[in-house]
Amino acid sequence: MATKTINILISTLALFSIFLSLANSTDFHYPSVFNFGDSISDTGGHAAGLGFFLGPPNGEKYFKTSSTGRFSDGRLIVDFLGNFFPFIFYSLQTCNTCFLHVLFLIMFICLPLSKSIHFNFPSVFNFGDSNSDTGELIASGIESLDPPNGQIYFKNPSGRYCDGRLIIDFLMDAMDLPFLNAYLDSVGVPTFRKGCNFATAGSTILPATATSISPFSFGIQVAQFLRFKARALELRAKNKKLDKYLPKEEYFGQALYMFDIGQNDIAGAFYSKSLDEILASIPTILVEFENGIKKLYDQGARNFWIHNTGPLGCLTQNVAKFGTDPSKLDELGCVGSHNQAAKIFNVQLHALCKNFRAQYSDANVTYIDIFTIKSNLIADYSRYGFEQPIMACCGYGGPPLNYNNRIRCGQTKNLNGTWVTAKGCPDSTEYVSWDGIHYTEAANQFVSSQILTGKYADPPFSDEMPFLLKLKF
């Protein structure tokens, strides 16, 4: 008891010494506070960002729970300071971990469906890379996006590596669900009741390394979801006012879990490995993926929507880097080795989906052949209203590729003594590629419409599917 009293006195004296030293020079009437630091003042950012839990007895004294994310038995110095200031300190991640990323495909339909389908999910949780990132990497502060990104639909950069909407946006809209908020994006009072997006640009299935663009690999994204779920249920139980922002407990079992990841594992490997080495690594990559979806299944997930990877050899970036020798290109002008690796990855991913479906009979696993849809678009681009299948709309260098890996879309840089800007093209609807790596909104819209035909799904869309689609067109 004596020791406890002494500790309290020491803490109190320390706080008063801070205020006494600032009494004559500081006015503590601030409208807001932004805190930067380490675990001494971390109120949950590290735990939320990496998706891990602090077990008891952390938080036992004041909060009575270990889920506050503080490395302490109770409050931190920053919490005590908050009692003196007319505001409360919050971790950006405590309540604002986004819900899922709806990945259901739909927009307007180019081909009629033989049987209508209904995507009747209360929530969507999405995992992936830049193909479906709606702001995660930008919210993390690792990168920023400049105009003309987002110019078409959002009129400003929206956190998406695109001139407008992504496939996932079109699918959400077709399901009459709101666009998914990024898990880490806590600004703007986001709601996660209908889903949350954990996809992060640059992410891989395999654990990130020191040279990775994104630290949020697939395993970390799954861990973020687990923390999100636990935190959402805990907050709903404590405060009914949060019900409109967070999903109900039953939503987690009824939700659609969507995946579009693996592109960076394959494409990135070509910078340091031979084709044979890359092909040999695919089983290891897919073991990591299977472990992740099994964790989600164990948490009650039952509806899985899995995209395979697209024709990586047709991305402007890869043609510019690996296609300088014409003998390396196929008849479409794409790098053959990259597409070969993508095809083999997809064959093994498809087998994994079939095995998972057989092993867990109560799981609905839908495999979507994105590779074929995108390959058809590039092979027959003019038929679908496009003029440029490979050249980037937003880039630097001009034809035939308009791509320079030293400058990103919207950036202004000094290259070889000259200041240059990677500008957008006059009409992005004529281009398949937006920035050399990602597709334009027009191309994403086309891909979405093809997904909705059901022809590229296994199993194909039918009345036996667990959802029905409200067609808007």
Q: What does the average pLDDT come to?
A: 85
Report the major sheet.
6 strands, mixed
Number of domains: 2
Q: Spatial order of the strands in the main sheet?
A: 2-1-3-4-5-10
Q: Please give the radius of gyration in angstroms.
A: 24 Å
Helical residues, percent: 25-40%
The SSE order reads HHHEHHEHHEHHEHHEHEEEEHE
Shape designation: globular
- Terminal CA distance: 73 Å
The computed structural class is alpha/beta
Number of strands: 10
Q: Which percent range describes the beta-strand content?
A: 5-15%
Q: What is the top-level CATH class of the largest domain? A: Alpha Beta
Q: In the CATH classification, which architecture of the largest domain applies? A: 3-Layer(aba) Sandwich
By DSSP (H or I, 4+ residues per run), the number of helices equals 13
Signal peptide: 1-25
GO molecular function: hydrolase activity, acting on ester bonds
Pfam families: Lipase_GDSL
Family: Belongs to the 'GDSL' lipolytic enzyme family.
Structural commentary:
- The radius of gyration is 24 Å and the shape is globular.
- The longest helix is centred in the middle third of the chain and has 24 residues, at 275-298.
- The strands form three sheets. It has a six-stranded mixed β-sheet, covered by helices on one side. Strands 6-9 form a two-stranded parallel ribbon. It has a two-stranded antiparallel sheet with strand order 7-8.
- By secondary structure, the protein is α/β, with parallel strands linked by helices.
- Helix content is 33%, strand content 9%.
